[in-house]
Design goal:
Blueprint lengths: L1 H13 L1 H21 L14 H12 L1 H4 L4 E7 L9 H14 L5 E4 L14 E8 L8 H16 L3 E5 L12 H17 L2 H29 L3 H31 L4 H28 L7 H32 L6 H10 L12 H11 L1 H16 L7 E2 L11 H13 L7 E6 L6 H13 L6 E4 L3 E2 L5 E8 L6 H21 L2 E6 H35 L3 H26 L15 E2 L2 H29 L4 H28 L7 H33 L8 H6 L8 H8 L20
Parallel strand pairs: 5-11
Antiparallel strand pairs: 1-3, 1-4, 2-3, 6-9, 6-10, 7-9, 8-9
C-alpha cells in the first residue's frame, strides 16, 4: 500500500497539470449533471417493518382517497380578545381567506372552518384543512404564494391567522454556518503552518472534494429520490474530513522537506506514509456510514451512503490533487520568514524546532501520572454522559420550530384551544376483510378504546368503513401532546386493548398516526443499535488490528469511542431536552431527542474518532517499530502528531459547530452532537486516555499473537516497507539524498 501510494504521489506531483485538468473536468461534468438533473420525486416518509407504517400501507391499499398523500396545510383562525370567530366581522374575514384559497388548481379540497367540529368550545378558534393534489416537494411556488396571500388577507381583516402543515415546508437554512466554519479553519491552518499557501491548500482541496461530492449527489438525486437533508450531511462530513486529510499530507510533506528531501520525493513519501493513514482512516468512516444501511430505514441509508461517497471523494482528492498542488507550491509551502531562515542557514528547508513542543511536554506529563489522568478523564466523561440515561426519543414536529414561525404559532393555538393531543391524533386502521360483520367488528374495537377515556384518551371518533367494507378507520385524540411519554404509554395500552377485540371478531387493528409512528420508529432504532455497533465496531476493530499489529490498541480505541459518544449524547440531552444553556445555542423549545440521533451519532463519530486514532497512534507505532521504548514512542507520537491532530480537531469542531445556526432543529442537533463528540474524543480520549492507557500497558500494548500476525495482511501504515523499497533502489533513483542523514532534527 505505502509503496503504491508513494508512486502515486510522485506521479501526481510530476503530472500536476494533467491532474489539475482531470479534477476540474470532473467538477465541470458533475456540475453540469447536477444543473440538468431532475428534482427527486415526492415520496412519503417510510419506515418498513413497524406497525404504524403497516397502518399507512393498508390505508393506501384499500382506501387511497382517505390516505391522501398530497401536501396539507392547516389554516388556524383566532379571534381577538372577547370576540367569537363566528361573529359577523370575523366570519367575513374567515370566508375571505378561504375564498382566496379556492382558486388554486393544485388544491384538492378545503374543509369548512366554521363547522361545529372545527370551532373550539370557547368559540374563539377555528381551523380549515387544505389538501393538495401533489406532495410538498412538488408543490408549485404559485400555490404557496396563494396560501400566504390568503393568510395575509385574513390578518388584514382583523383576525389572527397562522398556518401549519407541510405545504409551507421550506429548505432548511444553515445561515452562515459553513462560512464561519471555513473561516475558523483558515485561521487555525494559518497558525499551524505559518504560511498562506500551506493554509489555503487544505481549504482549496476540501472545497473541490465537497463540490464534486455534492454535485454528484445532486445529479443522481432524481434517480434515487434523495431527500434534501442528504446533501446537507454530506457537505458537513465532506468538508470536515477533506480539510483534515489534506492537512495531514501537507504537514508530512513539510516534515519531509525539513529532512532534506527534494520536493518530488517529499510528496511521494508524504502520500506513502500520511496517505496510508488517510486511506485507512477514510475506510473506517466509510464502513461506519455505509453500515447505517443495516437499520433498514431509507432516509438513514441515503444519508449514510451519500456522506460515505463524499468521504471517498475526499480520500481520492487527498491522494492525487493534494500532491499535484504541492508540485505547484514547492518550497513555498513554507512562509517567507521560514524560507529566509533556511537561506541564511544555507539549507534546503527551514529546520524544525529542536526544543520540546507542547505535544511532547503534555505526553511526558501524562506519562508521569497515567492512572490519575485516566481516572479523571473517564470520570469526567462519565459525568457528562449521565443525562443520556434519561433520553426521550421522538421525531421533530411543528412544536420544535422557533416561536416566531407561523407553524409554531398555529401549533400552539390548536393545543390551547382543542387540547394538547389535538396536534397528534392516533388513527386506528382496522382490517375487517375476514370479519362476518365488519361494522360490528369495527364498533367492538371502538368500544374497547372508548373504555380508556380518562386514562389518556380525550375522544374517540366514529368507525368509518370504506366502500368495500373491508377496512375501517377510527380517530383517537390523546389527552397529552405527541412528545409526552404518557402518549407512548397510551399507544401501548390501546394496542393491548384492541387485541382483545381482534381475537373475538377476527379483525386485525393497526395503531397509526404521528405519535405511533414516532414510538415505533424509536423502538426500531433502539433494536438496531446493538447489531449495528457489533457490525461497524467489529469490522473497524479487525481493520485496526491489521493497521497497528495489536489487540489492545484497537480495543482501547473502541472503548474510548463509546465514552465520546455517550458524553456527546449526554450533552445533547442537557441542551435540547433539559434546556440547559438552551438560549446560548438558539434552542427555543425543548423536547425529545431526534430518534435517529443515537445511531447516527454512533455511525459518524466512530469513523471520525478512528481518524484521530490512526493519525496519532501511527506515529507511536512507527517510533516503537524503529526501536524506541513504549513510553518514548508515546512522546514521539505526540511530538510529531499532537499539533496536527489538535488543529484537525479544532477545524472539524468549527465546521460542525457552524451548523448549530441552522433553522432546522434536526441539523442544529446533529451539528452540536458532532462538534461535542469530536471535542470529547480528540481532546479527552485521544489526548489523555490514549497516552495514559499506553503508559500503563507498556510493551504489552503492542502484543499480537504470532499465529494472528502470520495471517494478517501487512498494511504497513508506518511505511517501513516503503523505506526498504527506496533503500533498495539504485542510487540514480531521482532522490540522491534519500539515504543521507537528515540535515536537521525533526521529521
Amino acid at each position: 500500500m505505502a509503496t503504491f501510494l508513494y508512486g502515486l504521489g510522485r506521479t501526481a506531483f510530476r503530472r500536476r497539470r494533467l491532474v489539475l485538468f482531470i479534477w476540474l473536468a470532473v467538477l465541470v461534468a458533475v456540475g453540469f449533471g447536477a444543473a440538468s438533473a431532475s428534482k427527486p420525486a415526492a415520496k412519503p416518509f417510510s419506515i418498513p417493518g413497524i406497525e404504524a407504517q403497516k397502518a399507512v400501507d393498508l390505508l393506501e391499499e384499500r382506501s387511497p382517497d382517505a390516505a391522501g398523500g398530497g401536501a396539507t396545510a392547516r389554516v388556524v383562525f383566532h379571534a381577538k380578545d372577547g370576540q367569537r370567530i363566528d361573529a359577523a366581522q370575523n366570519k367575513a374575514a374567515v370566508e375571505k381567506t378561504i375564498g382566496a384559497l379556492k382558486g388554486t388548481q393544485e388544491i384538492a379540497g378545503v374543509t369548512d372552518p366554521l363547522a361545529p367540529q372545527t370551532v373550539s368550545s370557547d368559540g374563539r378558534t377555528a381551523y380549515a384543512t387544505v389538501d393538495y393534489t401533489v406532495g410538498a416537494d412538488l408543490l408549485k411556488d404559485s400555490s404557496r404564494d396563494t396560501l400566504e396571500n390568503a393568510v395575509d388577507q385574513g390578518r388584514a381583516a382583523g383576525i389572527d391567522v397562522e398556518v401549519g402543515g407541510d405545504a409551507l415546508r421550506s429548505q432548511s437554512s444553515v445561515g452562515n454556518g459553513e462560512i464561519i466554519g471555513v473561516a475558523v479553519a483558515a485561521v487555525v491552518l494559518a497558525i499551524t503552518f505559518g504560511a498562506m499557501i500551506a493554509a489555503g491548500l487544505p481549504l482549496l482541496t476540501a472545497i473541490l472534494g465537497v463540490g464534486v461530492g455534492i454535485a454528484g449527489i445532486t445529479a443522481v438525486a432524481g434517480v434515487f429520490d434523495l431527500s434534501d437533508s442528504t446533501s446537507t450531511l454530506a457537505m458537513m462530513i465532506g468538508l470536515a474530513v477533506g480539510i483534515d486529510y489534506a492537512l495531514f499530507i501537507v504537514s508530512r510533506f513539510r516534515t519531509e522537506l525539513r529532512l532534506g528531501r527534494e520536493p518530488e520525493e517529499a510528496a511521494g513519501r508524504a502520500v506513502g506514509t500520511a496517505g496510508s493513514a488517510v486511506v485507512f482512516a477514510g475506510l473506517t468512516v466509510v464502513i461506519a456510514l455505509s453500515g447505517l444501511a443495516v437499520v433498514n430505514i431509507p432516509m438513514l441509508t441515503e444519508m449514510g451512503l451519500a456522506a460515505a461517497f463524499t468521504v471517498v471523494i475526499a480520500v481520492l482528492v487527498a491522494l492525487t490533487f493534494v500532491p499535484a498542488l504541492l508540485g505547484f507550491a514547492g518550497k513555498r509551502i513554507f512562509g517567507r520568514k521560514d524560507r529566509k531562515r533556511a537561506a541564511e542557514l544555507n539549507v534546503s528547508a527551514p529546520p524544525a524546532d529542536e526544543k520540546p513542543n507542547m505535544g511532547s511536554r503534555w505526553a511526558r506529563f501524562v506519562l508521569r501520572r497515567p492512572a490519575l489522568v485516566l481516572i479523571a478523564a473517564v470520570l469526567g466523561l462519565g459525568a457528562i454522559a449521565l443525562p443520556a440515561a434519561s433520553m426521550n426519543l421522538g421525531l421533530p414536529d411543528d412544536s420544535a420550530k422557533p416561536t416566531s414561525t407561523t407553524q409554531r404559532k398555529a401549533y400552539d393555538m390548536l393545543a390551547e384551544s382543542f387540547g394538547p393531543g389535538f396536534n397528534g391524533p392516533l388513527l386506528l386502521v382496522v382490517d375487517t376483510a375476514k370479519a362476518s360483520d365488519p361494522h360490528g367488528a369495527a364498533e367492538a374495537v371502538r368500544n374497547q378504546v372508548d373504555g380508556l377515556r380518562g386514562k389518556g384518551v380525550a375522544s374517540v371518533g366514529q368507525a368509518m368503513l370504506n366502500r368495500k367494507g373491508d377496512l375501517a378507520t377510527i380517530a383517537v385524540t390523546p389527552t397529552t401532546k405527541p412528545s409526552d411519554p404518557k402518549t407512548e404509554t397510551l399507544v401501548h395500552d390501546i394496542r393491548a386493548a384492541v387485541g382483545k377485540a381482534d381475537d373475538a371478531a377476527g379483525t386485525r387493528t393497526y395503531v397509526g398516526g404521528t405519535p405511533a409512528m414516532n414510538i415505533d420508529f424509536s423502538q426500531k432504532l433502539n433494536d438496531a443499535l446493538l447489531p449495528y455497533l457489533i457490525l461497524v465496531v467489529g469490522l473497524a476493530f479487525l481493520l485496526l488490528i491489521a493497521v497497528f499489529r495489536s489487540i489492545l490498541v484497537p480495543l482501547k480505541a473502541a472503548l474510548g469511542f463509546l465514552l465520546s459518544v455517550a458524553a456527546s449524547l449526554g450533552l445533547v440531552v442537557m441542551i435540547f431536552q433539559w434546556g440547559w444553556m438552551a438560549d446560548l445555542f438558539g434552542v427555543q423549545q425543548t423536547g425529545p431527542i431526534m430518534s435517529m440521533m443515537p445511531i447516527f451519532l454512533v455511525g459518524v463519530v466512530f469513523g471520525l474518532a478512528m481518524d484521530y486514532e490512526v493519525f496519532l497512534v501511527t506515529g507511536m507505532r512507527e517510533a516503537f517499530v524503529h526501536g524506541e521504548s513504549p513510553r518514548e514512542a508515546v512522546v514521539s507520537g505526540f511530538r510529531h502528531g499532537a499539533r496536527v491532530v489538535t488543529a484537525a480537531a479544532i477545524i472539524m469542531i468549527a465546521v460542525f459547530a457552524g451548523f448549530i445556526g441552522a433553522t432546522d432543529s434536526m441539523i442544529k442537533m446533529i451539528g452540536l452532537g458532532l462538534a461535542g463528540a469530536v471535542f470529547f474524543d480528540a481532546f479527552v480520549v485521544r489526548m489523555a486516555v490514549v497516552p495514559a492507557v499506553l503508559a500503563l500497558l507498556g510493551k504489552s500494548a503492542w502484543w499480537l499473537p504470532k499465529w494472528l500476525d502470520r495471517i494478517l495482511p501487512n498494511v504497513d501504515v508506518e511505511g517501513d516497507s516503503l523505506r526498504k523499497h527506496i533503500d533498495g533502489q539504485a542510487s540514480g533513483d531521482g532522490d540522491p539524498r534519500s539515504d543521507r542523514e537528515p540535515v536537521t532534527v525533526g521529521r
